[in-house]
Amino acid sequence: MSDSEVENAKFLGDESSGIVPIKEKLAYSFAQMPGTFYGGVMGVIQSFYFAWMGLLNIWITIAQIVYAVWNMVNDPIFGNIIGNTRYYNKKRGEIQRYMPYIKFGAPLFSLCFALVFFPPDAWRGQTSNLTIQVWLFIWYLVSQIAYDTLFTLVLCAVVALLPQMTLNQREREKIQLYGTAATIPAILFGFIVPVIYLADPSTETIAQFQLLVVFIAIFGIFPYLILSKYVREHSEYIPKNETPLFKSIKLAFKNPSFRVYVIYDGISVFLLNIIMVSLPFYLTWVLTPMEGFNMLLFWIGPIICIVISVPIVLKIAAKKSTKASITFYLGMLTIGGIFSFIAGISGNWILVSIGFSITMLGLPGDFIQHNPMRADTIDYDYWKISGERREGLYAGVGSLLSKPMISVALAVPPAVFTAFGLIYVDAIGGLEATQGFQLASLGVNISMTLLPVIASLIGLIVWIKFYPLTGEVVEKMKKEVSILHEQRRKEYKESRNSKNISP
Description:
Blueprint: H1 3-17, H2 22-30, H3 33-42, H4 45-53, H5 57-84, E1 87-89, E2 94-96, H6 99-115, H7 130-165, H8 169-198, H9 203-230, H10 245-253, H11 256-285, H12 293-319, H13 322-346, H14 349-362, H15 364-385, H16 391-397, H17 402-419, E3 422-425, E4 430-433, H18 437-466, H19 471-499
Antiparallel strand pairs: 1-2, 3-4
Helix pairs in contact: 2-8, 2-9, 3-8, 3-9, 5-7, 5-16, 5-17, 6-7, 6-9, 7-15, 7-16, 8-15, 11-15, 11-17, 11-18, 12-13, 12-14, 12-15, 13-14, 13-15, 13-18, 15-19, 17-18
C-alpha cells in the first residue's frame, strides 16, 4: 500500500470514529480569530463615520438600506455557488468546494476590511458640503459592500467546513470550544481596544486606530492559510449533481430547524452588532463621569463572567441539550439588558457593571453553540430533506435575515442618537447634545440596552416554542446520519480504488 493510500485509509478511519485530529481542531479554531477581530472593529464603524468623519445620518440610512438589499441577495447566491464548486486540487489529488475561497480569498478579504477605515481625511467634518458628503457616502457604502462580499466568500466556506469534519456532537463542541478559546482574546482585543480609541476620538487616537486596523488586516491572512494547509475537505460528501439556487432555497425552507435558525441567526447578529455600535457612545454619554480606576473596576465583573460562562454553557449542553444552552444565552441577555437599562437611567456605574456581568454570563453561549447548532440543522437536511451535504448553501441562505439585520443594527443607533439630539456639529468638530445631556444619554441607553432586550426576548420566545431539535431527536439523527456517512465513505473509497486515484 502506498503512503497516500495509507494516509487516505487513516483519514477515512478517523472520520468513521468521529475523532478529529488535534492539528485540524487547532487550525480550524485559529481560523475563527480573523472574523472576530474584523467584526469587533467593524462594530465601531459608526463611531468612525458618524462621530469622527461627520457623515450625516440620512446618508448612513440610505447606505444601510442599499447594503441590506445587497446582503440579502448575495449570500444565498454565493453560498450556492460555493456549494456547487468543483475545484480539483492537484497537490492533494482531491476535489474541493471550500478551500479555494478560503486560501485565495483571504488576502482580498483583509484588504477590503482595511479600506473601510481609510477614506481621505480631507473629507472629515464637512457636513454642509454636499459634494463631500456624497463622496464620503460612496466610500462608506462601496467599501462595506466589498468587505461583505469577501466576508461571504471566505466565512461561508469556513463555516461550511465544521459540519462535515465530524458528526460527533462532543467533538463539534470541542472544536468550537477551542475556537472560543482562540476568539476570547480576539473578542476582548477586537471589541474593547477599538472602543477605547473611538469612545472620544481625536486626531491622535484615530491615527493609532488606523494603525491597529492595518496590523489586524495583515495578521488576519495567516489563520486562513494555516486552515487551508491542515484541514481536509471530505470529497466523499460532495453531491454528484449541482443544485439550482431556487430549488436549494425551497428545500432549505422545508427544514423546520432551518426556519427557526434563520430567525435566531438574524437576532443574534443584530444583538452583537447593535451592542458594539452603541458601546463607544454608551461609555461617553452614559458612563461619562467614570474614568481611571473606576473604569478598570467596571470591567472586572463582565470579564470574569465571560470566563465562567464557558463551562456553564458547555455543562448545560452536555446535561440537557444545545437547545437548553442557547435558551440560557438568550435568557441572560434579556435579564442583563433590562437590569442595565434601569441602571443606566440611574447613572450608577456599579449597577451598570452588574447588568453587563449578567449579560456576559450568557453572551459566549452564541459563540460556543452557534456553529454546532447550525451543523445540526444541516445534518437534519441531509437526514430528512435532501439526502445531500449542503453546508455551503446553508452558510449562505442562513444569512437571509442576519445580513439585513446587520444593516438595521448599523442604521438604528445613529437614527436614535439624532432623534434624541446627539448630532455632529461642525463648529466643535464632533458630537454635541443639542437637546440637553440627559436626553442624549437616554437615547444612547435605549440603543445599547433596551433595543437588544426587545430583540433577545423575541428570539427567546421563538426559540423555546418552535426549535424542533431536542436532545432525543438529535441523538436519533446522529445515529442514522452516521450510517449514511459510512455508506458514502465506502462508495467513495470503492470509486477511488476502481479509478486507481491516490489522494
